[in-house]
Amino acid sequence: MALMWYEMSSFLLQEQAAEEILHSNRHSLPFGLQLTKQQALELAETRSRALHACGRVEFGAGMIGKLAEAFCSSPYLSRETYAETLNELVELFYLYKSETGERVTDDGLIRYMRAAFDGPCGGSLELLGGRALYRLAHRLRSGACEEDQDV
Amino acid sequence: MSDLKPHRVLRRECLDERRYFDALLSVSLDHGLLTQNDLLRMQGEFLALLSQTCETYTGGSGSSVPVETAEELSRSLLFTLGI
């Protein structure tokens, strides 16, 4: 029953989530990056779809703000691709939060994503998802590294 | 006269013990003891409680949990509320 309530409310709260996402503009504006209301709504929808696809439940949309805050200073982001990149980062985040089997914290995963995106991936989302995060999930699942500190 | 029993709209024996709180809300709504507005308010309050419980569960290290975990936490909360 309670999760039915959650699904009902998450549908109604998209607007509220978008407002929360727009708060991240205060961090990204100094880098010339800004989300519009429409883009924030799209991000809220992407988040809902990604959570559903990964079989996860989340209260509040603070994670997107954290991603935006962490990535807005990346040299690989531009005004034209900012929203699109964030959408893909949101999908990758929830996918690998699940794939790592809860063995990494949200902040640890975001730090790793940012470091890999700017470093070995050279700003490529394909390499970030297909190589860096895939390897991280494999290492965590195989026990090659156990905790957030090893990431 | 001694056979007369007080009339009760809610009879505990008619409520499913395994999902007591859920059943209580449902019967209360059917008999007009709760309104849709009451139910909406309670849904909001329950989701806030579930959100806090999920945060405690992850130790603040994660904002999301697998659906199975959320279901278990929900069942646990509803059971506690039913007591």
Description of the molecule:
The complex is a heterodimer of chains A (151) and B (83). With 151 residues, chain A is mostly helical. Chain A has one domain (2-150). Helix content of chain A is 67%, strand content 2%. Chain B has one domain (12-82). Helix content of chain B is 60%, strand content 4%. In chain B, helix 1 crosses helix 3 and helix 2 (36-58) crosses helix 3. The longest helix of chain B has 23 residues, at 36-58. Chain B is elongated, with a radius of gyration of 17 Å. The chains are: A mainly alpha (151), B mainly alpha (83). Chain A binds chain B through residues 1-3, 5-6, 8-9, 51, 55-60, 62-63, 94, 97-98, 102, 105-107, 148, and chain B through 19, 22, 43-44, 46-47, 50-51, 54, 61-71, 74, 77-78.
Class by SSE composition of chain B: mainly alpha
What pattern of helices and strands is seen along the backbone of chain A? HHHHEHHHH
Question: How many strands of chain A?
Answer: 1
**Overall mean pLDDT score of chain B?**
84
Task: Count the DSSP helices of chain A.
Answer: 8
> Gyration radius of chain A, to the nearest Å?
15 Å
Integer tally of domains of chain A:
1
Order of helices and strands of chain B: HHEH
Coarse shape of chain A: flat
| Major beta sheet summary of chain A | none
Low-confidence stretches of chain A: none
When the domains of chain B are counted, the total is 1
Profile the largest sheet of chain B.
none
InterPro entries (chain B): DUF6179
InterPro entries (chain A): DUF6323
Pfam families (chain A): DUF6323
